[in-house]
Specification:
7 strands; about 260 residues; single chain; about 40% helix; alpha/beta; 5-stranded parallel sheet; 2 domains
Amino acid sequence: MIVFAGPSLCDTDFLQGSALEIRPPVRQGDVYLATLEKPKAIGIIDGYFDGTPSVWHKEILWAMSQGITVLGASSMGALRAAELDTFGMIGVGAIYVDYRDGILEGDDEVALAHGPAELGFTRLSVAMVNVRATLKAAVLANVLSQPEAGELAVRAKNIFFKDRTWESVLSETDTGLNDRENLKAWIAANEVDQKRIDAGFLLERMITVGLETPDIDFHFERTDLWVHATRTWKSRQTKCNNADSGTYNLLGKNNFLS
């Protein structure tokens, strides 16, 4: 089973000995190329989108038409699962549910800036879904009032996703917090990483729960565009293999995912 993940799942040591192969965040063509290996299942957690073509919906439909179970959670996986669950893709976790139900809208809810694989996909910003989950926890812990949390959520949403950090969200400007320093300390110790939580749920399901063959009720159309795209992806894979350059590490220091 193949899983595409990055900053939402930084520590994979506990997967040693499992049937899961963890690969870097998915980009366009990767799911199709993975199907050629005939895996039992494909899990999508993280994926590139800014400056790199994102995973194509039709790739996922292709995988399911080949009898491969496809699951999504946390980030790009949650987005695609919310869009394709009626076709048989399996969504996992709270973020997927919120996208499915229309509570969350927009890619920026899960988008963040991060470093390259060599540095463990170090996160350079905070995802909006993690801001929301943390503020909710702060209200339950009586660290914030509901109006204060609402004000901070609006402030965070208005910050461009690449620049969204706790420092920018909790800056002195335009916030009427009574105890800013106490809140900063509380977040440092209690921040809720909803993306990581949901990624864990996806892995747990793949490892411990039997995966059913997708119930497909659609006709996959092999259009000219599809045929051209698959040839391009195969050519890309051949060039990468010949160069022995690895995968995805050509994108530089500041990559972005959703």
